[in-house]
Amino acid sequence: MNSSIGIFDSGLGGLTVLKVLAQKFPHESFCYLGDIARLPYGNKSPETIRKYGLQILKFLKAQNVKVLIIACNSASTVFLEEREFEGIPLLNVIVPGSRAALVAAGMDKRIAVLGTSATIRSHAYATTLKALDSAVEVTETACPLFVPLVEEGVVEDPITELVALRYLQKIKQQKIKTVILGCTHYPVLRSDLRKVLGQDVQLVESGEVLSAELGQLFGNGGIEASSDGHGRQIRVCITDLTDHFERLATQLMDPEPIGRLEKVVL
Amino acid sequence: MNSSIGIFDSGLGGLTVLKVLAQKFPHESFCYLGDIARLPYGNKSPETIRKYGLQILKFLKAQNVKVLIIACNSASTVFLEEREFEGIPLLNVIVPGSRAALVAAGMDKRIAVLGTSATIRSHAYATTLKALDSAVEVTETACPLFVPLVEEGVVEDPITELVALRYLQKIKQQKIKTVILGCTHYPVLRSDLRKVLGQDVQLVESGEVLSAELGQLFGNGGIEASSDGHGRQIRVCITDLTDHFERLATQLMDPEPIGRLEKVVL
Description:
Largest interface: A-B, 25 and 24 residues
Oligomer: homodimer
Number of strands of chain A: 11
Structural class of chain A: alpha/beta
Number of domains of chain A: 2
Radius of gyration of chain A: 18 Å
CATH architecture of the largest domain in chain A: 3-Layer(aba) Sandwich
Helix content of chain A: 40-55%
Number of helices of chain A: 11
Strand order of the largest sheet of chain A: 4-5-3-1-2-10-11
Strand content of chain A: 15-25%
Shape of chain A: globular
C-alpha cells in the first residue's frame, strides 16, 4: 500500500494538518489539494461547497490515494455522514475533533467551538458533541476575520489580539478551557488565542486529531506504507498560483520543506 | 435602446457602484453580476481573473445589455486595453478613475492608490496615471484586509481604524490629499479613512467616476434609454447565495431598494 494519502482543503490552511501528518507518518506519501482559486469556503452555501468538494475528491482519487482526508472544516460539515468516497476511506475533521475535545474537557463538560461562518452555521460540531455526550455544553463562535488575518500574516499582532478579544469575549468571561479550533488556519493564531484566553486553555487542533484517527485506521490493518519512507513524495497541488501563496505555503509548513507548488485544473 | 446596463464585480462590493449609477440614471435598467462563489479576485492570478471575467461578460451579453461595466478593479486591470467586448462598449474603472484623480489633485500632483493585492501588484493605476501626466507622483498601497472587514460589517470600528492606520501610515505622514479608492468595497470605509487621513482628503470613488463616464458615452449618442424609467428593472444576480449576502446587499445599496437576489450558474 504505497499509494499516497490525499488531503483536501479550501486553501493553504490545511498545510497545518499536512505538516503534523508528514511528521507523524514519515513513511507515507501525501497529495494535498488546496482549492485556492475558489477560497474561502467559509461563507459559501452547502450546495456550492459540496459541488466543489466532489470535484476535488474525484481529482485526488485519480492521483492514486488510499485514504482521503477532508482537512477543511467547512467542507467536512457537508460530508459529515460519509465514511468512504467511491470505495476509499474518507476522514473528516468534525467527528474525531469532537471526540478529542470531550476527552480534553473531562468532567468540566464545557466546550467552545471556533470556526468560519459556514462551519458555525452548520452546527456540525455542536450536533456531533451532543450526540456523543448529551450533558456537554457547547458555545459556538464564528470568527470570519481569522482566515484573512492568517493569510495576510497578521499574526502575534495587536490587530489580531483586538479581533480575538471581540470574538472570544464570552468564552473568556465564562472561563471555558477547552476550545476546538474548527478551521485549519487557526493553529497559526495559537499564541494570539492563548494571550486572550489564558495559557492554560486546551486548544483542540485538526492536525493532532487527524493524526490519531489515521493511526487508528492504520492499526485496523493493511494499508500502512511498507517502504522505509525513502523517496516518499509530498505533493502540494493548488488551483491557482501567485507568489503570495508560495510564501504563505512555506510559512505554514515551516520547518518542513516543501517542493514547488503544482498548479492543477479541476 | 431600452436594453440594460451590465455591471460585473467579483462580489457585492460593486453594489456601491450600482447604487450611484441607479440614482444618477433613473431611466435605465441594470443587470448586475456578483461572482460571489469565486470571490475574492484580489489575490488571484491575472490568468484566472481573465478566465472568470470572460465567462461573466458572456453571461451579461446574453442578458441583452447595451454597455458593459467592469466595476471590479482587480478585473479591470486585466481588461485595461479593451474598449469593447463582442461589439458592446466596455468600461473599466481604472482609466476614468485615474483621470478624475488627476483633476482632483490639480497642482499638487501627488496621488495615493489603495487597492487589493492584485490591483496594486498590476500597477495599473500608476501606469495609467503616469501615461496621462508624467509629472505625477504615485503611492500605491495594498489593503487586503479592507474587503473582509467590509464584508463582516466591521465599519466605523476601532479594529478597522487600527488596520487603516497600519496601511495608511505613509500616506498620512506625507499628507497626500488625493486618494483613489481602487476597490468597490472601500467607499463603505469612507468615514474610517477620513478619520485616519483627515476630513479634507479627496476620495476618488468608482461610482462617481463611472457615472461621469457613462454620461459621456450617452452624450456621444443614441443608446440612452428612451423610456421615462417607469418599469425599469434592477436585477442583481450572484453565483452563490447565503443569508449573509442578502443582508450585505441590502446594506450596500441602502437606501436604494433591491429585489430578491437571483442565483445564476455561469
